[in-house]
Specification:
The protein has 4 helices and 9 strands. By secondary structure, the chain is α+β, with helices and mostly antiparallel strands. Strands 1, 2, 3, 4, 5, 6, 7, 8 and 9 form a 9-stranded mixed β-sheet that branches. It starts with a helix and ends in a 7-residue tail after the last strand.
């Protein structure tokens, strides 16, 4: 019995020693792990130190940014450049605008209204009528079957210098017009095959000169011009051609410029 108890005691001591050894080894491992953890904790701390150093460098960069922006913030710099630009811009565009379209140039409204009309060209008229200031001229191209196509201008009433609109007021009909313009196509023996009367135009009388005609009667000779003239086809309303009425589906004739001067001769 005693030997059995002695063996148990020796076994117990052996187990207790082994357990103590295991505990001791486990505690040393935890200390090593703790040490390594401390080292790893310190390493990122060391790494953050240069990161903190780079922050002031970025701050320095932001400091230089306002230095570069200083010229923009300086009111003197942009003000001078703006003044220089405004000095050049107004002068450059005004130069090409100087050669503007003359007043006597083409009228867009006239061109629109004259679309579809026969455009004629009238050489300067120098022949006056016998009794009134009647101006008779020829034009081209020919509109009839023969060469006798005539443009006729009649100035009635008190003839004075000035500018008059055709186709409006008293000038919108042949019976009452004071400044009257007509085209006679195939004219002969005081009549014609076709007649055209004014509906648009600006007539200007620049000079009035009283002169004696071939019958030794005093008549007014004039000089002047017509611009943007449009005439539409009419038909006689009586046998003596005292009045005309417009034909609803009639043709039209147009001339950009007509000029006359009958002050150099007595007329015929």
């Amino acid at each position: 019995m005693k030997s059995s108890n002695f063996a148990k005691k020796i076994l117990f001591v052996f187990l207790f020693s082994a357990l103590a050894l295991l505990v001791a080894c486990g505690s040393s491992d935890e200390e090593d792990t703790t040490d390594s953890g401390v080292v790893s904790d310190e390493d990122p701390t060391d790494d953050t130190v240069p990161a903190a150093d780079t922050d002031p460098e970025s701050t320095d960069d932001t400091d230089t940014a306002p230095d570069n922006a200083d010229p923009t913030d300086d009111p003197d710099g942009p003000a001078e450049n703006t003044d220089t630009d405004t000095d050049i811009e107004p002068t450059e565009p005004t130069e090409p605008t100087e050669p503007t379209t003359p007043v006597d140039g083409p009228d867009p409204e006239f061109e629109k209204e004259a679309a579809g009309c026969t455009m004629i060209e009238v050489p300067k008229i120098t022949v006056g009528g016998l009794y009134a200031d009647e101006i008779n001229g020829y034009f081209s191209p020919s509109m009839g079957e023969n060469a006798i196509d005539i443009i006729r201008i009649f100035l009635m009433g008190n003839i004075t210098t000035g500018t008059y609109e055709l186709g409006t007021g008293l000038n919108d009909n042949y019976a009452q017009c004071q400044q009257c313009v007509m085209v006679w196509v195939d004219a002969e023996l005081g009549a014609a095959k076709e007649y055209y009367f004014q509906t648009r135009g600006t007539l200007t009388i620049t000079k009035v000169t009283p002169m004696l005609n071939a019958s030794e009667e005093e008549v007014d000779r004039t000089s002047g011009s017509i611009r943007n003239l449009i005439m539409k086809q009419v038909e006689p309303l009586n046998d003596y051609l005292g009045d005309f009425g417009f034909i609803s589906d009639g043709k039209c004739v147009a001339a950009e410029f007509v000029e006359w001067d009958t002050t150099g001769e007595s007329g015929n």
